[in-house]
Amino acid sequence: MRVGTREFGGYMAQAVGARRAARRLPDVAAPGVADARQLPDEEFAGAWSAIVMPAGTKSRLLRTAVASAHLRAAVPFDALPLHGVLLLAGPPGVGKTTVARGLADRVSRTVVDTSPWLFIEVDPHGLASSSLGRSQRAVDQLFGTLLDEHASAGPMIVLLDEVETLFTDRTALSMEANPIDVHRAVDAALVGLDRLARRHPNVLIIATTNFKEAIDPALASRADWIFEVPLPDRTARRTILEHTAAAVAAAFPDAAGLLEPDVLDRAADLATGLDGRQLRKAVAAACAVRREAQGDPGRVSGEDLLTALGELGGRS
Ligand SMILES: Nc1ncnc2c1ncn2[C@@H]1O[C@H](COP(=O)(O)OP(=O)(O)OP(=O)(O)O)[C@@H](O)[C@H]1O
Ligand SMILES: [Mg+2]
Question: At what angle do helices 276-286 and 302-312 cross, to 10 degrees?
Answer without folding.
Answer: 130
